[in-house]
Structure formats: C-alpha cells, structure tokens
TrEMBL record:
GO terms for cellular component: mitochondrion. It comes from Scleropages formosus. GO terms for biological process: L-valine catabolic process; thymine catabolic process. Its EC number is 1.2.1.27. This is methylmalonate-semialdehyde dehydrogenase (CoA acylating). GO terms for molecular function: methylmalonate-semialdehyde dehydrogenase (acylating, NAD) activity. It is an enzyme of class 1 (oxidoreductase). Transmembrane segments: none annotated. It catalyses: 3-oxopropanoate + NAD(+) + CoA + H2O = hydrogencarbonate + acetyl-CoA + NADH + H(+); 2-methyl-3-oxopropanoate + NAD(+) + CoA + H2O = propanoyl-CoA + hydrogencarbonate + NADH + H(+). The keyword Metal-binding does not apply. Residues 1-229 form the Aldehyde dehydrogenase domain. Belongs to the aldehyde dehydrogenase family. Keywords: NAD, Oxidoreductase. It holds the Pfam family Aldedh.
C-alpha cells in the first residue's frame, strides 16, 4: 500500500503552532511512520512562511535515538538510507529546489550510521518521482497553491488516502476541506490524525486494502459472527386448515 500525507496550510492559520506541527510531523521518527506529514501545500500568502519553516528544521538535532536531546534518529537500514537519498536526488534532477540537504550528515561516534538529516524540497510538482513515491524518511516536500480548491484538487489527485491535515482558524474553511477531501483520516490543526482506539483506522483509496478497517467498531465486526433468530409465537392454536407452501410471512 503506501501513503502521501498532505498538510494544507492556509494563510489564516496560527503561524507558530502550524510551523512547529509541520516540522514535528514531517521529521519525527525520521519520517519512518505511515502517518508522517511528508508533504506541505502552502496556500496563498502562507508561501512566505517557508524561510521560518526552514529555520525550525535546521534547529533539529540528529543523533542516535537513545542519546539525550536527539530529535531525529537514524533510518532503519543502509538500504533505506540509500533509497531516501536517491529520491532526494531525483527531486533535484527534476527541478525541485533543495532548501535543506540532510544527506552526508555526520553524527559523532556514529560515523557509519544510517543517518539522513531533515531535508526540505520546494517547488515540487505532482509529476516528480519524489512526490509520486512514498519516501519514508525525514524529507518534507513543499508545494504551492493559490486557493483552497486548488489544494483540495492536488490532494484528491494523489492515489493515496491515508491521512491529511488542514491548518486554519476558519471553521468554514475547515468544514469545506473535511467534506471535500478524499482521504480517510483528516486532522484540523492536528498534523497526524491517528484516531483513538474506539474509532477505526480509516485510511482509504491506495492506502487501504480489503473491506473492513482495523480496530474500533469495524475491528469488532471483523471478529464477530452474525447470527439471526426469527421466532413466531401465537396466542391460540392455528386456525388454517392447510399448510402454507409460499414463502412464510409473519401473518401465517
């Protein structure tokens, strides 16, 4: 399956909170989680926030996960590192702007570790390989849109439907987005909208196979064998003189 989770940033969003949430959701766990917010769509004047987003990403500390103060740990294997670096390079080759390059990051004491630092690619288009494939690393792709409708169109044209988030202080904007976006798990000012266990994990489209979501009510249904009992009790003995040979109804 796979995912390409988009965060749509409206110009009326709470700026400080939104920037912090984007950085945390994109680079936490070194981007190695299916609900990582790997793609940001900056709408309208929110484009001007990119330099501040960049500074916050630069401030993250790359180190072994068991070291105090580490923000971004290593990738899981050398092969994962090579794949992430290859997708970063593919973005550069196809015309994206590499604002922050986490390749060749050096971590003292772990020189041979599988580390890739926070990376940001801007001017990304939906046709680029770095966009069409799930990177699964600490890489944030930045796209731009002139309107909410354009942003919704970008998200809905992507084949995956695992998670998405919109950052806004406008209730009408949030309602429009949650109604029109074709993604199974939607956050409003929540960057990684993984539902609580009483709800189902509702990834959809290319991010889902089968017909039943796991845990929540759907998970209970999965483990439930349905039984139907049909009963009829009469207050008196039968008054009909012949048996009914048609489909039985409650009246006979």
């Amino acid at each position: 399956m796979g995912a390409k989770n988009h965060g749509v940033v409206m110009p009326d969003a709470n700026k400080e909170n939104t920037l912090n949430q984007l950085v945390g959701a994109a680079f936490g766990a070194a981007g190695q989680r299916c609900m990582a917010l790997s793609t940001a769509i900056l709408v309208g004047e929110a484009r001007s926030w990119l330099p501040e987003l960049l500074e916050r990403a630069k401030a993250l500390r790359v180190n072994a996960g068991d070291q105090p103060g580490a923000d971004v740990g290593p990738l899981i294997t050398p092969q994962a590192k090579a794949r992430v670096e290859s997708l970063i390079q593919s973005g550069v080759d196809e015309g994206a702007t590499l604002l922050l390059d986490g390749r060749n990051v050096q971590v003292k004491g772990y020189e041979n570790g599988n580390f890739v630092g926070p990376t940001i690619l801007s001017k990304v288009t939906p046709q680029m390989k770095c966009y069409t494939e799930e990177i699964f690393g600490p890489v944030l792709l930045v796209l731009e849109a002139d309107s909410l409708d354009e942003a919704v169109g970008i998200v809905n044209k992507n084949p995956y439907g695992n998670g998405t988030a919109i950052f806004t202080t406008n209730g009408a904007t949030a309602r429009k987005y949650t109604h029109e976006v074709e993604v199974g798990q939607v956050g409003v000012n929540v960057p990684i909208p993984v539902p609580l266990p009483m709800f189902s994990f509702t990834g959809s489209r290319g991010s889902f196979r089968g017909d039943t979501n796991f845990y929540g009510k759907q998970g209970i249904y999965f483990y439930t064998q349905i039984k139907t009992v049909t009963s009829q009790w009469k207050a008196e003995d039968a008054t009909l003189k012949s048996p009914a040979v048609t489909m039985p109804t409650m009246g006979r």
